[in-house]
Amino acid sequence: MQARTHVTLEDVARAAEVSLATASRALNGTAPVRQHLRERVLRAAEELAYTPNAHARALAGATHRTVGVICHDVSDPYFAAVAGGIMRVAGDNGMLVMLASTFREPEREIAYVSMLRAERAAAILLIGSGFEDPDWERALDAELDPYLAGGGRVAVVSRHRSLKVDSVLPENRAGAAAMARSLLDLGHRRFAVLTGSQALTTVSDRFGGFRDELKKAGVRLRPADVVEAPFTRDGGYAAMSELLARGLDATCVFAVTDVMAIGALSALREHGLSVPDDVSVAGFDDIPIVRDLTPPLTTVALPLPQLGERAMELALTENPGRRRRIHRMAGEVVIRSSTRKVSP
Amino acid sequence: MQARTHVTLEDVARAAEVSLATASRALNGTAPVRQHLRERVLRAAEELAYTPNAHARALAGATHRTVGVICHDVSDPYFAAVAGGIMRVAGDNGMLVMLASTFREPEREIAYVSMLRAERAAAILLIGSGFEDPDWERALDAELDPYLAGGGRVAVVSRHRSLKVDSVLPENRAGAAAMARSLLDLGHRRFAVLTGSQALTTVSDRFGGFRDELKKAGVRLRPADVVEAPFTRDGGYAAMSELLARGLDATCVFAVTDVMAIGALSALREHGLSVPDDVSVAGFDDIPIVRDLTPPLTTVALPLPQLGERAMELALTENPGRRRRIHRMAGEVVIRSSTRKVSP
DNA sequence: GCGCTTACTGAAAGCGCATTCAGAATGACT
DNA sequence: AGTCATTCTGAATGCGCTTTCAGTAAGCGC
Q1: Which has fewest Cβ within 10 Å: A125, A127, B235, B277?
Q2: Do you know which InterPro entries this protein is assigned to (chains A, B) (predicted)?
């Protein structure tokens, strides 16, 4: 690096012919400063294009207006939507958001928490399910504990087992159960499920809620009816293809995320099957795009941006008792055209 | 805020019974430290769950490993894809990304640059077209100049007029022209265009490239064939609806972004028109989802993640001569099923 | 004009770290 | 053993800012 000679508060003070302390007070309004002095300071700052050094500021005790957000992948519409909500309220509160994508590598998650800790971020938000390996979750706890002890705020979205930390929890189980009921009401009795790793609470809740509701109605899900695949469009495509390859014996396919459902739709189309005439498809999340698919996807709608907004608000809000606050958000079944009454 | 009593390097040094300086050197490996001392320091740091204070570090002269990214809206698939690329290379280089969404408000953009400047971010990346009002662009320059002077790095993606700063430029004009040629080759002669504000270079390049290429072929675009709307799905929907309301007299609709094309597709569908049988539709960008639409969208494919990657690389790369480096990236026409030969 | 309160102002003390500089310890040679 | 180069180590300084703390000047009543 080169000189990097920045304008400092001292330069401003000198130009305005006041002391450092007065300049600081004039700029921040932390204490009364006589009119003409204040003006001189403000003018000097303006002329010198002074920008306070956030590091010096944070070091000197002013609280740092930065929050960290960790998700799996911003380019996934689900995270993008949640992140959008977070950034909106962060922006409204004058906060800067540091966003990190782990690309589903636990090492990165830990590393990012550590960096965020080093940044003394005012809050850390973890979005989306954790990792399957309990060792990683423990390592995460170990990283988070001292942060919390040091006064840091942590909030998680859709991440169950996480320590005693503020949480925004979509009601995955109830939503999936409601979807199962809707599908049963349409007359479906033979189902297939496209799922992600069961080790993730989001998945096990959605899957469990769906399966249990079916069971209540006397409908069984055979192991062969359930395919596990990565949480991506291609994962959904692959899972659906596998199902198709072994001869699909279901009138309805439920994917635990919309993104997977999109892949499924594509596989079905390629296979010459019509949705919903030959088979119904339902998803979960209601990411914005699914409204515009053909056919528009039946899904469990989650208020994605609000998930992020609530989490950010929780993290920004004082929590005197240090109790774990949980904010549950219901999902709502939205029947669109990818599902239909089963033909008798 | 409360106590926030953090473990400091001094604590570690004391626990390891060495001096501050030695502890620092052992932890950073900036100078040789005798084996047994180093081990003691490392162990102490481990036990105390020490995390260096990034602010103190940055203040003391170590370069700060943080980059700022400003876009219009992360939840837009275009920005999400570019941001994904940025975050990938940032992560690989141990950098933390601060992402800000302006929601298309110029005040926010300026405010964010200022905050990023205060954070002494190693680089600032501006993604997407600037604002229409030249005053804002000037204000932005004024904010950026001292940053550059102070050794900061700035890179922009798809933002023409911006000062002498490293740029990654998709070839909007050429891409649109190529698309026009493809469409002409399919026999189309009557076109409609869905556009954003012409004041944005991205838009005027795409629109201009398209229009000029048509003109070369002797095909005129009447003002009534061009509708301007916001850069969103709903903008595209509204623009298409307007066109439809006045009686669409075109065999092919070109939208300057895929996101707008998605809205257009929806409006067309609602209006009972079939794509591509009644009308062809083409977009620009090739955001991931358009492959899965029905029909899959014909579009100009831009390597979105690479746009971000290149920009980040430019910003991370030393630029001794301080010359403006421009990295152009070509778009490629991808014909899918939303366009067809015009029926005679 | 004196004492007292109130309103500002400035000098100085850190915040936590990297780093310089001087000094101590070690080793290699004569 | 004595000299000198080499390798480590620690005390001290400063990064830019906020914030005490100890004033100084102004305002007021008498």
Answers
A1: B277
A2: HTH_LacI, LacI/GalR-like_sensor, Lambda_DNA-bd_dom_sf, Peripla_BP_I
248-287 in chain B: CB under 8 A from chain A: 262-263, 265-266, 269
A119: chain B residues, CB-CB within 8 Å = 54-55, 66, 96
pLDDT at B161: 65
B342 burial type by CB count under 10 A (0-12 exposed, 13-18 middle, 19+ buried): middle
Which pLDDT value is given to residue A1?
31
Is the CA virtual torsion B227, B228, B229, B235 positive or negative?
positive
CATH code that applies to domain B66-169+305-329 = 3.40.50.2300
CATH number 3.40.50.2300 is the correct assignment for the domain at A172-302: yes
Cα–Cα distance measured from residue B130 to residue B113, given in angstroms and rounded to the nearest whole number? 13
Strands A252-255 and A96-101: unpaired
**Would you tell me which residues have their CB within 7 A of strand C?**
A 18-22, 25, 31-34, 37, 56, 59-61; B 6, 8-10, 20-21, 24-25, 27-28, 30-31, 50, 52-53, 56-57, 59-62
Name the minimum distance, in Å, from the CA of A116 to any CA of chain B.
8
pLDDT exceeds cutoff 50 at A3: no
Q: At what angle do helices A106-118 and A134-149 cross, to 10 degrees?
A: 10
Q: What is the band of B155 on the pLDDT scale with cuts at 50, 70, 90? A: very high
Nucleotides of D under 7 A from a protein CB: 7-12, 14-20
> Which nt has its C1' nearest the CA of B59?
D15
Nearest Cβ partner of A84 from B55, B101, B233? Answer: B101
Residue extents of the structural domains in chain B = 9-59, 66-169+305-329, 172-302
- For residue B104, the 8-state DSSP code is T
Domain A9-59 in CATH 1.10.260.40: yes
Give me Rg for the CA atoms of chain A. Answer: 26
Taking Cα atoms as reference points, which of B61, B4, B3, B52 lies closest to residue B26? B52
Strand partners, B155: B125, B166
Using an 8 Å Cβ cutoff, are A123 and A152 in contact?
yes
Give the C-alpha separation, B128 to A112, whole Å: 27
Count other Cβ atoms within 10 Å, centred on residue B278: 13
Q: What average pLDDT does the segment B294-305 reach?
A: 97
Buried b / exposed e over A82-101, threshold 16 CB at 10 Å, is bbbbbbbbbbeeebbbbbbb
**How many angstroms away from the CA of A301 is the closest CA of chain B?**
17
Strand partners, A194: A227, A255
Q: Choose between B132 and B278: higher pLDDT.
A: B278
Instruction: Report pLDDT digits (tens) over B228-256.
Output: 999 899 999 999 999 999 999 999 999 99
**Which pLDDT tens digit goes with each residue over A138-170?**
899 889 988 988 888 999 999 876 667 899 999
Q: Regarding the domain delimited by A66-170+305-329, which CATH topology (the fold level of the hierarchy) does it fall under? A: Rossmann fold (3.40.50)
